[in-house]
Amino acid sequence: MIYDLQSTDDPRDIVHRSVQALVEGQLVGVPSDTVYGLVASALCPDAVDALVGQARQAYARLPLAASAGGSVSRSGIPVGSLGLSVRSAEATGDFVLPVTNLTRRLRERCFPGPLTLVADCREPGSAVERLPESVQHHLVEAATGGVGETEAGRDGEIAKWVTIRVADHRILSHIHRYLAAPLVWAELPAAGSTDDSELVANQPIARAITSADGLKAVLELGKVDSDLPWPPLLLDDGITRYGGWGTVVRAVGRTWTVVRDGVIQRAAMNQFAKPVIAIVCTGNTCRSPMAETLLRSLLLERFGREDVAQVVSAGLAAGRGGGATPQAIEVMGRHGLDLTGHCSRPLDDSLMTMADLVLTMTRRHREAILAAWPDRSERVFTLRRDGGDVGDPVGMPVDVYFQCAEQIRQELNAWVDSLGESFFPVEAPEVDLNRHNNETSATTIPSEADATEPTDADFDNHAEQDAGDGPGPTDRPDL
Asked: Does 469 participate in catalysis according to the annotation?
């Protein structure tokens, strides 16, 4: 039965019916922000078996196993098309362990939204271990591109992949509210995909199901071909918000890879993956602008590109749009750096929400920030690693500015050394995991030292996204 969510002002009865069906071990067809899919309770192994059967059957009807884009998992379902749906960004931390800088960053910036994350869950304590064994098996196989879970890596670690998403849709949010367990989510290719495929990287990609009628058509095809159970409920909320596949990203250490292109464009993903370093003083006209410029220069020396991180500066009492002081401009000029285009900005919620690291010029700056944003204490530090202050040179001669800049440069050098390479992400091409021996059952995790450093071409291909370039999961600060 199809329930029209748009024709009711109070969907609670439909939500309760859906929750009851899921608890009883049935499948339910639901909308998300990207596509329509099928869900089952992760605590109902038989329902998950049926869900996997529906997905395998739908993709088996396509001429290419990879026609949904990306790499094909050992289960025969494209990586990213079957995984866990959880209630919130915070809840992903129960499953994705260990938490890395990169996975934390993507979780905070892209969930809820049209991102599907493929990440490691091998660490003891992951909530994946508390799911039924057969459900764990399906999840790991669906997230592993032809490689199983017993092949030890060079460092003795073993990869155990899980696919996870947090959809930005009211009905899924309500369903999650009433269920203790996560859902297993499956995305099916649209009926007729073989006739109307798009070309992505010279490979056909199946059309996404963006309506309840589209999902019904696929299920009816499956009903003819097999005796798989028919979902008792299909929830219709009209065409999905984004009208297409979500983006699938695999995160390994500090390396990230787009497994399937989707509504979050690669340029935007590049920005979401980067760390944001904010440097704060009072007026954002001398100390913090010099520090911003010096840090960009330092990153260029270390990594060959200054945009391995987004570096911004702000002031606790700054206006918006003011220039740097003439002395700061002159001192930066002596370093071969240009500060003439600086525009001051106040420190605000948007920047504090995005910032991975906030460096303040004085202890009072740090105290003021933590008074306003007490939940950010683990990310806010004084620039001086001994906890001291960098004096304000405003109104002083150029030589004092020069000494201040030198002190800032030395402290920034120490900070970059302490952060290490793991703080800075690297985009890498998707590894064809299907090349590995299918008799093994684990993926080697490359160490961070093995990750390939980005080249000029890598960064040129991921220039910052224009405002009209496509949808993204969250609003970004004006960087």
From this structure: no
The Cβ of residue 340 has, within 10 Å, a number of other Cβ atoms equal to 9
**CATH number of the domain to which 47 belongs:** 3.90.870.10
Active site residue: 110, 121, 281, 286, which one?
281
Is 375 part of a structural domain of the chain? yes
405 plus 370 within the same structural domain: yes
* 17 classed as catalytic: no
Is residue 443 helix, strand or coil? Answer: strand
pLDDT digits (tens, 9 = 90+) for 288-345: 999 999 999 999 999 999 999 999 999 999 999 999 999 999 999 999 999 999 999 9
Phi and psi of 426, rounded to 5°?
-130, 130
Q: What is the pTM of this model?
A: 0.83
Q: Does residue 343 have an active-site annotation?
A: no
- The number of folded domains in the chain is 2
pLDDT tens profile 207-229 = 899 999 999 999 988 775 667 77
What is the CATH number for 357? 3.40.50.2300
Helix (H, G, I), strand (E, B) or coil at 44: coil
Catalytic residue among 207, 254, 287, 345: 287
Query: Taking 60 as the threshold, does the pLDDT of residue 182 lie above it?
Result: yes
Tally the C-alpha atoms within 13 A of residue 153's C-alpha that lie toward its C-beta: 14
Catalytic member of 56, 392, 458, 476: 392
Compute the average pLDDT of residues 168-194: 90
